[in-house]
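[User]
Um, tokens okay?
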Amino acid sequence: MAEPMDFYDSLAEDYHLMFADWWTSAVAQGETLDGILRDRGVPEGATLLDCTCGIGTQALPLAARGYRVTGSDLSASAVARARDEAARRGIPITLGTADVRELTAAEPFDVVISADNSLPHLRTDDDLGAALAAIRTVLAPDGVFLASVRDYDALARDRVAGVMPVTHTENGARRIVGQSWTWTDDLRTVTFDLFMLRQREDGWTASVRTTVYRAWRRAELTAALTAAGFTDIVWADPPDSGYYQPVVTARTMRRDT
């Protein structure tokens, strides 16, 4: 079973295969996240840190929309892939490796984001608290933090067993991608098996990558944000935000309060 860094190091080369068209999806996500941030009063050209950037699914389209973006991730392989994708598209962005629990910044950011259910890789109260404290430290006064996470309240209640396989076709070759989830008895953690079957000229290949998530409930994340010093915490579900996962936004305190 891979820990998060190993999981994403192994997935970096194939991450785009989970999508019918990764970049089209990324551009759409960037547009939606931009709208959410603008609704929260974030100005054009704001400085933004994507502290769990992966291969750049959110960081790159936000940079293309005019944000001054820095991306960091625990996985060096994912960061290298993000750097290649940025160069291929001529997108200006600063990228590097960093542990979200140990963030530092020479200058504070207007915005920090962590999308794609990244926070649940932090499986203990201490790790989540350390990450949120670090995020708060690198945010400017009245800065905005945005995260997207799966709706674990509903998923645990219904004991959802995974994501049904989907088939994509590229250059005449098919691939099948799906997820199997195994819950602990207390429904506090879930083991995530990501499987891919890829059609080759000489047959099919199969791969399975495994990691574990903490099934953080919404109330737990809200409490952790509050404990870390965030205020104005707002949750938005997909029908309201247009994003594919629930989104939470929160602010740091102003200096004059």
Observations:
- The mean pLDDT is 96.
- The chain is about 30% helix and 35% strand.
